[in-house]
Design goal:
mainly beta; seven-stranded mixed β-sheet; 8 helices; about 40% strand; binds sulfanyl-(tricuprio-$l^{4}-sulfanyl)copper; binds dinuclear copper ion
Length: about 625
């Protein structure tokens, strides 16, 4: 064992991790959500008032994002991202259907806000899909997804998304090593043919598109979580690894053999320079940097085995790794790492990547008594860190400078991440932290064998941390982001834009045009009717021939807050939402002959029920 590395009591801990949940600090019968009226007052947001913060919780394998208000913890929206959503017609209209690319689910773990100078700027939210290797950007003006990028050469971008200080890049390191181009390769060739690819993605605010800038062929390890540097470390980023053992089977046992894994420390400005100088290979249209050939941008820092999270302090001076199998948080210093790099204090290399000497970079190992299973760390504005303890079901507050434990609060139960208000920015608010609990057990009315997960709001303003509210959440809140509500400037009604392609604003302009076997409908949705053909006697009827492709372009001309119309075709599995002032397109082949009612799905007026029409499909 390397001197200074925390001895991992892995057999014991692995047992707890897998055999069940161990409640070290929690009496199962006692809840920490107080009923005291003072707590109730703190979370009560009366009608007419609004919450102070937005919370965006990852929807895990639902592929969605869930939006909550804080402190009320009321759920106010589901934003579909990687999975179709009938409530909004996401996945049926042309744009969202093309963005989803045929996938019917996703696995969204870590949302990240766009940043300007290290502060959340309230403009965009990014997320990645572990299941189908995608990145998405949501526009916070409309709470809708603008673009989805399919990332080649990569499998399971769990270790993302995190953005650099001015949203120059979001980085997507991956959980599953695969051969580049995902070509067939025997597992016996794991060390030589498999890679853990990290992708650098940019977002173009003008075109609203995500683009793949370049990739890095990292060693065939699993990358778990990451964070970007801040201030003096802004050009750098860190990520955790596990399975540096390179086990190819039974990872539960085989991926925890060694006492240490690594933090990957990389300089993205340096990588950017290499790419500009042409130091890459092109595979599948992607520029891939090989760190063994092109040195000087990537280093490895030894860390206690199988770390989970790594988090950069708000001042950018330190990064803290949490060891899920070692009962400690390890504090590293960026300054010490830069010194070690300058003085070449290396302890060998791996795959041509220099390994920094542990003792030269490590500042402190923090090991609160009986705190087990540290996973992720958040920060406040007063120099304190808050680490979630999965196994002992608590949040531990500790001093970053001294390592001293200040306070502990039990949560119900087994928190993965927690999220602090503005917690990933250079200036966290320090008012609230929310524990994202994996297991709610007896917290809510039973709904059968599978229970909801839970989020618990913790007040940080008193001398002791205090749980003041709890809310059930659908699977699975891996991570979340909390932003001040006044930073988000939504659009309530989309602007009337007569130049917008395919839009129709006057009833008499609504028309149906046939081009070969394509039928284009340029129509209107308004209270309380559809107008497909403004000049016809029956304006709300479309007649096509079996086998025609039907293309509906519909504009909602009700420029009124919250007057949304739906557009559904009965028995054709078609459905979309058209928001106030919006133009949406839906296309499908009318392959079934017959009579198909069309109707509005969103209750929009007293005569909403009358908002219907017909699609008549003449048999061949
Ligand atoms: Cu669940 Cu961030 Cu995917 Cu840790 S992750 S808990
Ligand atoms: Cu339009 Cu209901």
């Amino acid at each position: 064992m390397k001197k200074g590395i925390i001895p991992a009591i892995s057999g014991l801990l692995a047992g707890f991790l897998t055999a069940g949940v161990f409640f070290a600090n929690t009496d199962m019968g006692e809840k920490t959500v107080a009923n005291a009226s003072s707590d109730a007052e703190k979370v009560y947001v009366p009608f007419g008032k609004q919450d102070e913060y937005y919370l965006f919780a990852s929807g895990g394998h639902s592929g969605q994002l869930f939006v909550y208000g804080v402190p009320s913890m009321r759920r106010i929206r589901t934003v579909p991202v990687f999975t179709p959503d009938a409530a909004t017609g996401y996945g049926w209209d042309k744009k969202s259907k093309e963005m989803l690319g045929g996938y019917t689910w996703g696995d969204l773990h870590h949302p990240a806000f766009s940043e300007t100078k290290g502060e959340y700027d309230g403009k965009y939210l990014f997320a990645t899909d572990v299941a189908n290797n995608r990145a998405a950007v949501m526009d916070l003006k409309t709470f809708t997804v603008e673009d989805i990028l399919n990332v080649p050469n990569t499998s399971g971008p769990h270790c993302a998304a995190f953005v650099t200080e001015n949203t120059e890049y979001l980085f997507l390191p991956t959980r599953f090593p695969v051969p580049i181009n995902r070509e067939y390769a025997k597992l016996d060739d794991f060390s030589t043919k498999y890679k853990g690819v990290m992708s650098a993605v940019t977002f173009n605010e003008q075109t609203k598109k995500l683009e793949l800038a370049y990739q890095v062929a990292l060693p065939p390890w699993s990358y778990d979580l990451s964070d970007a540097g801040k201030k003096t470390s802004a050009d750098w980023a860190v990520l955790t690894t596990y399975n540096t053992e390179e086990a190819t089977t039974n990872l539960e046992i085989n991926a925890s053999q060694k006492d240490r894994d690594y933090i990957v420390l990389f300089n993205w400005k340096e990588l950017e320079k290499m790419v500009k100088e042409g130091k890459y290979d092109t595979v599948n249209g992607a520029k891939i940097v090989n760190p063994a050939k092109h040195k000087g941008a990537i280093y490895l820092v030894p860390v206690a085995k199988s770390p989970h999270g790594v988090d950069v302090t708000p001042d950018g001076k330190r990064f803290i790794a949490s060891g899920k199998l070692a009962p400690a948080m390890t504090v590293f210093s960026f300054e010490k790492a830069f010194e070690a790099i300058k003085n070449k204090k290396f302890d060998g290399e791996k795959y041509g990547i220099p390994v920094l000497d542990y003792a030269s970079v490590m500042e402190r190992e923090v090991n609160p008594p009986n705190a087990l299973g540290p996973l992720h760390t958040q920060f406040d504005d007063k120099g304190f860190a808050y680490t979630t303890m999965f196994i002992s079901s608590e949040i531990v507050k500790w001093n970053v400078e001294t390592g001293e434990t200040v306070d502990r609060v039990p949560v119900q139960y087994s928190p993965g991440h927690s999220v602090a208000a503005e917690g990933d920015s250079v200036s966290p608010d320090g008012k609230y932290i929310v524990a994202l609990n994996k297991i709610a057990k007896d917290s809510y009315l039973s709904v059968g064998p599978s229970h909801p997960e839970s989020m618990q709001l913790i007040d940080l303003t008193g001398s002791k941390m205090k749980v003041i509210q709890t809310a059930p959440v659908d699977p699975e809140p891996h991570y979340a982001q909390i932003i001040k509500a006044d930073k988000i400037k939504t659009i309530e009604v989309l602007p009337k834009d007569e130049k917008r392609p395919n839009s129709v604003w006057k009833q008499e302009d609504a028309r149906i045009e046939r081009k070969g076997n394509e039928v284009h409908v340029y129509g209107i949705a308004m209270r309380s009717k559809f107008i497909f053909d403004g000049k016809a006697e029956r304006k709300d009827v479309v007649t096509v021939k079996q086998g025609d492709k039907v293309i509906f372009h519909l504009t909602n001309i009700d420029l009124d807050e919250d007057i949304t119309h739906g557009f559904a075709v009965n028995a054709y599995n078609q459905n979309m939402e058209i928001q106030p002032g919006e133009t949406k397109t839906m296309e499908f082949v009318a392959d079934k002959a017959g009579t198909y009612p069309i109707y509005c799905t969103n209750f929009c007026s007293a005569l909403h029920q009358e908002m219907s029409g017909y699609l008549l499909v003449e048999p061949k």
